[in-house]
Each structure stands twice: as structure tokens, then as C-alpha cells.
Putative cytochrome c-554 (Leptospirillum ferrooxidans), 208 residues
Amino acid sequence: MEWNKKWFRWGFSFLIFLIVVSGALGIIHEGHAGATESMFLHRYVGVQSCEACHSSGLLGRQFQAWKSSPHSRAFLDLSSREALDIGKRLGVSDPKTSQRCLSCHVTAPNAALPEAVSTFRMKDGVQCESCHGPGEDYTHYSVMIDPKKAREAGLVIHPDKKTCLTCHNPSSPTYKGFDEKTAMSQIAHPLPPAMSEKFGSSLTGGAP
Ligand code: HEC
Ligand code: HEC
Ligand code: HEC
Ligand code: HEC
């Protein structure tokens, strides 16, 4: 137990060190230039911004869980034989450029508009921010570790069934129903117990 904690503390400090260095190099966040002209409250930054921290074992490798889920392939799958067949049936000649498909298969279907920063990539499909909210203002370390600040900056800590149903609904040409319990367990990517041990209920704001 003691040993575990020591490792956790050491590893965590190292993680923070990496974050500070990459932050200084401008890798994590591209800055606020132009944000004031944006009609959007917060903009999408793209999954690689989250990857910088959330691929770490200390945080629970949420990036890897997402990468191996169908959500990471949602855009690429629009080029499949099956997608072309579905498109043909609905009079859509190129699913990967049609809003009728992109609306559910990518995080920001209008990425050309100022709703996303330049690091955002459509090809990454349904990304973290589809469920957790656009990350421009909460991906900084000092905000991220403070659940209250993070919520105020747009982070949705506990997405629920309502979030899923914005895409998992009968408007999907392949819809066969949505079972919340099964679907949630198929994409589960919790923080490790060590995190909740360290931060206690401050981590979840007391919610279950
Ligand atoms: C600078 C590093 C860093 C970046 C970048 C980052 N996170 Fe985090 N995130 C953390 C840390 C550390 C925690 C641990 C929670 C805490 O300390 O309260 C966390 C916690 C979270 C939580 C749970 C919050 C809670 O209070 O339970 C969510 C959800 C989350 N991050 C989503 C994201 C998403 C989505 C992105 C990308 C848009 C992202 N994070 C980018 C470091 C980061
Ligand atoms: C309302 C949201 C929505 C729209 C619009 C939508 N999809 Fe999907 N798509 C989904 C969801 C959710 C799934 C996962 C399976 C399901 O529940 O339908 C999916 C799955 C798929 C799959 C994989 C099927 C499988 O067997 O898993 C293909 C291919 C696909 N969609 C193509 C398309 C094409 C082509 C269009 C445009 C003509 C389109 N989708 C429009 C939400 C949508
Ligand atoms: C399809 C929706 C969806 C996507 C995509 C998604 N998440 Fe989540 N995330 C959830 C749900 C649902 C939960 C569970 C919320 C709860 O505990 O009530 C969750 C939980 C988390 C937690 C733990 C929160 C806690 O306090 O226990 C973190 C951290 C997190 N997500 C980060 C990420 C990151 C980083 C990505 C992208 C690499 C991502 N998520 C992609 C829906 C999503
Ligand atoms: C922005 C739209 C969007 C949201 C929000 C979303 N999904 Fe999905 N989901 C999709 C698409 C599109 C696919 C199909 C991807 C593919 O196979 O190409 C999919 C596939 C899945 C699959 C694979 C099984 C299947 O039905 O094909 C599961 C499980 C899943 N989603 C769970 C969830 C859960 C749980 C939530 C809510 C926490 C959620 N999704 C929110 C768009 C979404």
C-alpha cells in the first residue's frame, strides 16, 4: 500500500513535469488567439489534446479505451462498402462529405467553421469532446484538477444516457435499439481507484 502510494506520487509528479514541458512547447494548447471573434462559447480542440495526459496509466488510459472503441473509427467507417450502400439507399453519394452522415459520425461536423481550433481533426470521428464538451477552456492542468473550475469551463464530468441518445436514435440508418447498461459498459474508461483515493469525492464532486 505504502509502496503503491509512493509510486503514485512519484509518477504523478513526473506526469505534471511532462505536462508543464509540453505546455511550454505549445503542444497541448494552441492559445486563445481569435477566441474572442468566435461565436462559440468553447471550441473543440481534438482528441490528441486529451491524449497528452489521458494515455497515462496513472490516469487510467482513457485514450487507449477510446481508440479501441467504435467511436474512434466513426469517420473512417463512412468510407466502407457498407456506408456507401447505406448512402446509395438514401441518395447520399459520398457519406464522408455529407452532413446527413457527419452529423453523428464526427465530433464537430462543421470543423471548417470556428467551432474548432486548428488542431482538431475530423478523421478522429466521435471524440472525447462529443460526450465531455468542447475542451478549449478546460484542458489546462490547473483547471482540469479542479472539478468545479473544469465544469465552469465546459467539462461534462458525467455524460449520461441523454448524451448517447443524441446519436443513438432512430435517425441512424442502422439503428437497432440502444441498451444503456450494455453500451455504457462497452465504452467504460474510469479513472483508476488510486485517483479517487488521492482526491476523494472532490474528484466527482460528490456524485456517484
Ligand atoms: C494537462 C493534462 C490534461 C489534459 C490535457 C486533459 N486532462 Fe482530463 N484530467 C487530467 C487530470 C490530472 C485529471 C484528474 C482529475 C482531478 O485531478 O480532479 C483529469 C480528469 C478528467 C476527467 C474527470 C474529471 C473529474 O473530476 O472526475 C474528465 C472527464 C477529463 N479529464 C476529460 C478530459 C478531456 C475530454 C480532455 C481533452 C479535451 C482532457 N481531459 C484533457 C489531466 C488532463
Ligand atoms: C442520428 C445519428 C446518425 C446518423 C445521421 C448516421 N449515423 Fe451511422 N451510425 C450511428 C450510430 C449510433 C451507429 C451505431 C449503430 C446504430 O445504433 O445505428 C452507426 C453506425 C453506422 C455504421 C456501422 C454499422 C454497423 O454495422 O455497426 C455505418 C456503416 C454507418 N453508420 C453509416 C452511416 C451513413 C452512410 C450515414 C449517412 C447516410 C449515417 N451512418 C448517418 C449514428 C448515425
Ligand atoms: C461516447 C461518449 C464518451 C466518449 C467519446 C468519451 N467519454 Fe469519457 N466518459 C463517458 C461516460 C458516460 C463516463 C462515465 C461517467 C460517470 O462516471 O458517470 C466517462 C468517464 C470518463 C472519465 C472518468 C470520470 C470520473 O470521474 O470517473 C474520464 C477521465 C474520461 N471519461 C475521459 C475521457 C477521455 C480523455 C476521452 C477521449 C479519449 C473520453 N472520455 C471519451 C463518455 C464518453
Ligand atoms: C456524436 C454521436 C455519438 C454519441 C454522442 C455517442 N455515440 Fe456511440 N456511436 C456513434 C457512432 C457513429 C457509432 C458507430 C461507429 C462505427 O461503427 O463506425 C457508435 C457506436 C457505439 C457503440 C458500438 C456498438 C454499436 O451500437 O454499434 C457503443 C457501445 C456506443 N456507441 C456507446 C455509446 C454510449 C454509451 C454513448 C453515451 C455515453 C454514446 N455511444 C454516445 C455515435 C455516437
About this structure: The pocket of heme C (ligand 2) is lined by residues 77-78, 80, 82-83, 86-87, 90, 92, 95, 100-101, 103-105, 167-169, 171-176 (CB under 6 Å). Residues 23-38, 200-208 have pLDDT under 50 and may be disordered. The domain at 2-191 is CATH 1.10.1130 (Flavocytochrome C3; Chain A, domain 2). The CA atoms of residues 82 and 139 lie 36 Å apart.
